[in-house]
């Protein structure tokens, strides 16, 4: 042992004072101080500790105390209590606690006996906690009776808890009072709690971080001020109790369900944020996400599943609260924008995040969790750590948009850009620069947000405006197979200034069927940002089921659309009878947050063709089902080439009751002649001004001129009626350059697996459209 004698401590200079030393009469220690020990020294005989043994007895107890004879028998480094170990020492120094105190553990046993799990005996699955730390009274009773200083590192209890947001959810009927989990109308909730202090198996921790054990030990020693010399001198001791915070598990519903793979599990992994969690600062989403996680965990438990929230003590991304507040200052004084969010942290802390989720899944393995049905987290780091540890995640659930505080958009949008999961919009770095937090120019700025998430949406007429609408095509970065939102924004902005009445986002020509749900919503949001709050937007939300359509309709409303365009659900063409179609549209109309425009396109619906009688019945059924008698089905796009159908519907409904649009621009005049509201046609991507001019001429009485221009545009339109690829090529040649888009031909190639037109087809497009291009330029 490396030791010293207090008599050998250098004396202070004359007149200087030092604190009372262990040589004083009040000291509870001898003059002999043991600074460190070495393996093989006389008397050094650590109690065997086999991490990963099949049971507690064969594993052995964790002994870390230096008191009395245990100094030579201890088998672990550090001290009990985690970050509270220093307070324990202060209590002893103050004389409030005897240094040789032994707890009386009677009646402290767990309130629930968690069943043994195979991971408890797997030294690769659990390396940061003692899997038997909750049960030392039963497992090591003889040793405790013999006077060994063995301490629990876990505790299991049960309690009732109250959270304001849960009380609100009960009042709003979002949670039921079941008497078992939610016990009363105030929102009081029963919960099982598990507290865990860190106990590290150093070889396993080193392996998790991809370093060798010697490097880990040396780094821990050097960067804790040399506080633990036995990290260096005792390589035989493999267990370390670090001076850091632990975690708490909150289990809603019967705890035995947690490890049952036959029931659903909702899980929230939450890292501490005192400012938000406790004091509800609005600069981050921590408290709202925690409350949402608890609510969803309770709901899952009430539905017969299990709900778990695990709260880790990793304040400020484990950087600490001082660092966090310094970063806040730098953000606010330097201009709080999302593109600089991580840079501000790196400038002060040298790193973005020190939570290092590699150790986090240990508690999940201890609980026996094999799969997570609903992961209430957007963190890619948490997700990846859990999945890589062998636990399946079936669904990831982001925080609802309406729960995100205004000043926290900087945080959440920056994290989404860096890899956080989202079902919503993903910003480019250029767009992140426009996401701004509250400033500090005046004290009033502390309570009034200046952030703009998305341009607000002005009200539109219940029935869409008559005129020419463009089903805008989609730009891609084909190297990454992602949306090119920068080009898309320019294109939407250009189209909105060409005389078009409105834009259709996610029509057939946008390749909506090749887009993910997240991409669909991103396009709508980009369009709204590009065209401003007053310009009409219609969003295609066609899908195979009623549920899918309604989810897409909700996304469209959130992203800023005014109307939804809905195809019949016709995957099984023969089974899609007119009664099925009527029932489908009745359900959609009743539940859609936006007015519904029917989309009749037999070519993409297995031949399902809505006749005028069926359309009329759908409109009238919606009106009859609504208290105000006003139908939520407000129009139809007829991509079936039937002027007769336009005629019958125009004869049935007034224009302020129902809008009938032709599905191509080449029979715009024919449709207008029998009462159509205009058209929604792919050709308008190429020559929006010319198409709009046909409508303007006809509706202002210049019928002959309208017919003449219609003839020319109809001939030009012919080469692109063959499909989306030709339309996109024509837009790349004629309209995208006018929008200031460079490299449009590459960006407007169809998404895989579809192909661009052959060179002969491209030549035909250029030649057939040359004359109308001259007209377009003159308008």
Automatic annotation (TrEMBL):
Question: Which ranges of the sequence are coiled-coil?
Answer: none
**What CDD domains does UniProt report for this protein, alphabetically?**
DHDPS-like, GTP_cyclohydro2
Superkingdom of this protein's organism: Eukaryota
InterPro entries in the record: Aldolase_TIM, DapA-like, GTP_CH_N, GTP_cyclohydro_II, RibA, RibA-like_sf
A Pfam short name: DHDPS
What does the record give under GO molecular function? GTP binding; GTP cyclohydrolase II activity; lyase activity
Give the transmembrane region(s).
none
In Swiss-Prot or TrEMBL terms, this protein is called: Aldolase
What keywords would UniProt list here?
A: GTP-binding, Hydrolase, Nucleotide-binding
User: Family per UniProt?
Assistant: Belongs to the GTP cyclohydrolase II family.
Any one GO BP annotation for this protein: riboflavin biosynthetic process
The keyword Zinc is annotated on this UniProt entry: no
């Amino acid at each position: 042992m490396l030791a010293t004698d207090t008599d050998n401590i250098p004396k202070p200079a004359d007149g200087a004072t030092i604190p009372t030393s262990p040589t004083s009469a009040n000291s509870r220690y001898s003059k002999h101080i043991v600074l460190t020990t070495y393996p093989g020294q006389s008397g050094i005989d650590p109690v065997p500790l086999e991490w990963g043994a099949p049971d507690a007895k064969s594993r052995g107890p964790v002994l870390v105390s230096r008191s009395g004879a245990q100094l030579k028998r201890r088998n672990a480094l550090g001290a009990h209590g985690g970050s509270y170990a220093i307070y324990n020492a202060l209590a002893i120094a103050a004389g409030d606690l005897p240094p040789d105190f032994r707890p009386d553990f009677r009646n402290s046993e767990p309130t629930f006996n968690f069943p043994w799990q195979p991971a408890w005996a797997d030294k690769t699955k659990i390396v940061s906690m003692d899997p038997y730390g909750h049960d030392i009274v039963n497992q090591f009773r003889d040793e405790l009776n013999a006077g060994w200083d063995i301490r629990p590192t876990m505790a299991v209890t049960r309690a009732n808890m109250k959270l304001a947001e849960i009380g609100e959810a009960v009042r709003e009927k979002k949670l039921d009072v079941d008497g078992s989990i939610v016990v009363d109308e105030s929102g009081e909730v029963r919960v099982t709690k598990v507290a865990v202090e860190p106990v590290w198996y150093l070889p396993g921790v080193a392996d998790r971080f991809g370093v060798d054990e010697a490097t880990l030990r040396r780094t821990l020693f050097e960067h804790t001020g040399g506080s633990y010399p036995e990290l260096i001198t005792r390589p035989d001791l493999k267990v370390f109790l670090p001076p850091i915070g632990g975690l708490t598990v909150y289990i809603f519903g019967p705890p035995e369900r947690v490890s049952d793979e036959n029931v659903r599990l909702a899980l929230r992994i939450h890292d501490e944020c005192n400012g938000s969690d406790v004091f509800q600062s609005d600069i981050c989403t921590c408290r709202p996400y925690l409350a949402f996680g608890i609510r969803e965990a309770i709901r899952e438990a009430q539905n017969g599943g299990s709900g778990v929230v695990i709260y880790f003590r990793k304040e400020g991304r484990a950087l600490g609260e001082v660092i966090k507040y310094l970063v806040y200052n730098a953000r606010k004084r330097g201009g709080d924008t999302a593109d600089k969010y991580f840079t501000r942290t790196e400038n002060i802390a040298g790193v973005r995040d020190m939570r290092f989720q590699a150790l986090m899944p240990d508690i999940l393995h201890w609980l026996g969790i094999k799969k997570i049905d609903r992961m209430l987290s957007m963190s890619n780091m948490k997700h990846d750590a859990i999945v890589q540890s062998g636990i399946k995640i079936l669904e990831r659930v982001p925080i609802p948009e309406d729960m995100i505080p205004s000043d926290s958009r900087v945080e959440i949008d920056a994290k989404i850009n860096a890899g956080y999961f989202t079902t919503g919009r993903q910003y480019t770095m250029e767009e992140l620069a426009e996401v701004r937090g509250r400033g500090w120019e005046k004290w009033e700025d502390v309570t009034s947000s200046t952030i703009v998430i998305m341009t607000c949406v002005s009200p539109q007429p219940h029935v869409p405006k008559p005129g020419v609408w463009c089903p805008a095509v989609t730009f891609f970065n084909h190297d990454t197979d992602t949306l090119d939102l920068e080009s898309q924004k320019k294109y939407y902005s250009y189209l909105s200034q060409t005389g078009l009445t409105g834009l259709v986002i996610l029509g057939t020509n946008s390749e909506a069927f090749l887009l993910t749900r997240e991409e669909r919503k991103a396009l709508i949001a980009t369009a709204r940002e590009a065209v401003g709050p007053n310009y009409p937007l219609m969003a295609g939300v066609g899908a195979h089921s009623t549920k899918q359509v309604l989810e897409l309709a909700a996304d469209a409303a959130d992203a800023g659309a005014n109307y939804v365009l809905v195809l019949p659900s016709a995957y099984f063409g023969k089974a899609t009878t007119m009664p099925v179609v009527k029932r489908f549209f009745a359900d959609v109309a009743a539940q859609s947050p936006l007015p519904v425009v029917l989309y009749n396109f037999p070519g993409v619906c297995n031949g399902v063709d809505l006749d005028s009688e069926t359309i009329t019945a759908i409109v009238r059924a919606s009106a009859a089902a609504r208290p105000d008698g006003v139908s939520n089905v407000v129009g139809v796009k007829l991509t079936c080439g039937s002027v007769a159908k336009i005629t019958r519907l125009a004869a049935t409904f007034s224009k302020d009751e129902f809008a009938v649009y032709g599905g191509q621009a080449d029979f715009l005049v024919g449709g207008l002649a029998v009462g159509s509201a205009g058209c929604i046609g792919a050709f308008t991507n190429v020559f929006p001004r010319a198409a709009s001019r046909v409508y303007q001429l006809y509706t202002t009485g210049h019928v002959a001129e309208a017919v003449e221009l219609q003839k020319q545009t109809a001939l030009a339109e012919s080469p692109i009626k063959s499909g989306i690829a030709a339309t996109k090529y024509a837009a790349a040649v004629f309209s995208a350059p006018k929008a200031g888009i460079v490299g449009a031909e590459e960006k407007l190639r169809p998404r895989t697996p579809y192909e661009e037109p052959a060179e002969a087809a491209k030549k035909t497009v250029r030649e057939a459209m040359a004359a109308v291009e001259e007209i377009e330029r003159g308008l």
